[in-house]
Predict the structure of Mitochondrial thiamine pyrophosphate carrier 1.
Amino acid sequence: MEDGRKSFTRLTNIIYTCRAQYKQMEKSTTSDLQPSSGGGGGAAAAAHQTTKDLFSGAMGGIAQVLIGQPFDIVKVRLQTTNRYTGALDAATSIYKSEGPLAFYKGTLTPLIGIGACVSLQFGAFHAARRWFEARDNNDHRNPEAAFVNEQQQQLKLSNIFLSGAFAGVVNASLSSPIEHIRIRLQSQPHDRQSRLYSGPLDCARKIAVEAGGWLPGLYKGTCVTLLREATAYGAWFATFEALMTADVNRNRRTDRAQVPAWKVAFYGGLAGEALWLVSYPFDVIKSKMQTDGFGVTCRYPTMRSCFVHTWQQGGFAAFWKGIWPTLFRAMPVSAGTFAVVEMTRRAIS
């Protein structure tokens, strides 16, 4: 309990520190946001908006990890081993044999990394969205111009999907090594004698040694990660934005900030379901490749070989193993992420 209180206190301090730093930065740049005859105001306003996107995303990432980590442990165990009959059996077995803290095994890496990843996701998404808005205004050479009419713009759903896909591809540069380390930590035995890694840094170092380098080791499975991220985040952002836009239009709201927090969370939860329904088979392949060995112990040298082996072993159903706990997890995790991001954006606007 004492360790839990200390961890919560540290997390609270991190959040308050980030918010204080943002406020200080906001004060120092306020004068730059005023319109100027030279046109610098638009660029400064866009930069300021991007900073808010990144900060809000980081807060959403912290919420995402704290809510979703226990579900993620169960998902990875189901995807990478045949020891359990289902999600409930896996959760019960983990609790009995490893204790409640096992559900937060490997949390440090995603707590630091996922905050950065979600920050990058939202920053990249809104940057791409503003580019499409500027292009639609026949001003594609100046994406900052779209900032002025951000609330009035309603992009086509296909462009929102492409913006989300772009965010996913950008995010893969961070998420691929972070998730690789997390998955190996989550899937290793719990008892000290059988553990392969003592922590995230030890895991990263051993992966690099076994693979013959940092890049081929940490970025193993990156091709399938790119496919997963592009489809997943395209659907994620498109679903959420479509639901928010429909709500604004249906209720004749003048601003999306008028959408109640509970609706934001609900729409975010539905977006989370859409994310996994379109990308889960890629996630199964990614998990298999990132828990695979290296060299002579490697069973899946390529993404294609992993697809073929998975199909031969279990057919269509093998690509959906562990989907139910994942969907169960997706609703609260995605709801929390979007709610925290939207509320943070409103609080600092």
Q: What stands out?
A: The chain has a mean pLDDT of 83. DSSP finds eleven helices and no strands in the chain. The chain has one domain: 41-348.
